[in-house]
Design brief:
By secondary structure, this protein is mostly helical. The protein has ten helices and no strands. The structure holds heme C.
C-alpha cells in the first residue's frame, strides 16, 4: 500500500518536471525563432554604412549600371550641401567654388573666371577630364584626394549619395555618355583598369576588403530598381 503511494508521488514529480522542461523548450524556441527572422534585414545596412573613415576603400561602381538606376531628385537634394559654394545652372556664376554646369566631362580646373588652387592645377595636369569615377573619388573626401585643393568640404561618405549627385550633375550639362554596363569590371575591382579610362585615382586604393562591399551591392541594386523605374536618366 504505502509502496504504491510512494510510487505515485515519484511519478507525479517526474511528470511535473517533464511539463516544466517542455514549457521551457517552447518558450526559448519562440524567442530564438523570432530573432532569426529579425537579423538578416540589418546586415546589409551595417555593411553599407562603413564609409566613415577615409581609409575605407570603395569598389569602383559600374557606371553603366548604377547611373541608370540613380535617383536624380535625391541627387538634387544632396546637392543642397554643395550649393553654399556651387551654382550648377547654365551660365550661372562662380561662388566660393566654380560653376558646375557641365562639369561631368569637362577638364578639371578649367572654368572661366575661377581662380583654382595650385593643387587643382596640378591635378588637371595629370587628369584631362572629370569622368564619373574621378568626381566620385574627389567628392568622397576632396582634401584627402587632391592635395592642396581649396574645396573645404568634408565629403560625401555614402557611395549612393555620390552616385546620385553625379547623376544630378550629369543632368546639368554633362557631356559624358553613360558607358555600356560592364558588371564584370565591377565584380573584379582588383583587376587592371576598368573599361573606359575609369582608372581609380589612388595607388593604395584596393585591398582585400573589396569583395565584401561588393557582396552587399547586388542585393541593393534590384531594390532601388523596383522602387523607381521611371526616374532613370535620359
Ligand atoms: C565650402 C565650399 C564648397 C562646398 C560645400 C563644395 N565645394 Fe566643390 N569646390 C569648391 C572649391 C573652392 C573648388 C575649387 C577647388 C580648387 O581650386 O582647388 C571646388 C571644386 C569642385 C569641383 C571641380 C570643379 C572644376 O571646375 O574642376 C567639383 C566637381 C566639385 N567642387 C563638386 C562639389 C560637389 C558635388 C559638392 C557637394 C557634394 C561640392 N563640390 C561642395 C568649394 C566647395
Amino acid at each position: 500500500m504505502s509502496d504504491s503511494l510512494t510510487f505515485n508521488k515519484y511519478a507525479g514529480a517526474v511528470l511535473a518536471t517533464a511539463f516544466v522542461i517542455a514549457g521551457l523548450v517552447q518558450l526559448t524556441g519562440g524567442v530564438f525563432s523570432q530573432e532569426k527572422v529579425a537579423k538578416p534585414g540589418f546586415k546589409v545596412e551595417v555593411a553599407a554604412d562603413t564609409g566613415g573613415g577615409a581609409a575605407v576603400p570603395d569598389v569602383p561602381p559600374d557606371w553603366g549600371t548604377v547611373l541608370k538606376t540613380a535617383d536624380i531628385s535625391a541627387g538634387q537634394a544632396t546637392f543642397a550641401k554643395c550649393q553654399s559654394c556651387h551654382n550648377a545652372d547654365s551660365g550661372g556664376p562662380n561662388g566660393t567654388g566654380p560653376n558646375l554646369w557641365g562639369v561631368v566631362g569637362r577638364a578639371p580646373g578649367s572654368h572661366a573666371g575661377f581662380a583654382y588652387s595650385d593643387g587643382m592645377k596640378a591635378f588637371a595636369a595629370k587628369q584631362p577630364i572629370w569622368d564619373y569615377q574621378h568626381v566620385y573619388e574627389f567628392v568622397k573626401g576632396p582634401q584627402a584626394y587632391i592635395n592642396g585643393t581649396k574645396m573645404t568640404f568634408v565629403g560625401l561618405k555614402q557611395p549612393q549619395d555620390r552616385i546620385n549627385v553625379i547623376a544630378f550633375l550629369r543632368d546639368h550639362g554633362g557631356t559624358l555618355p553613360i558607358p555600356a554596363p560592364n558588371p564584370a569590371a565591377a565584380a573584379a575591382p582588383t583587376g587592371a583598369a576598368p573599361a573606359a579610362g575609369l582608372a581609380p585615382g589612388k595607388p593604395g586604393d584596393k585591398p582585400a576588403e573589396a569583395p565584401k562591399a561588393d557582396a552587399a551591392k547586388p542585393a541593393e541594386t534590384p531594390k532601388a530598381d523596383a522602387a523607381k523605374p521611371p526616374a532613370a536618366i535620359k
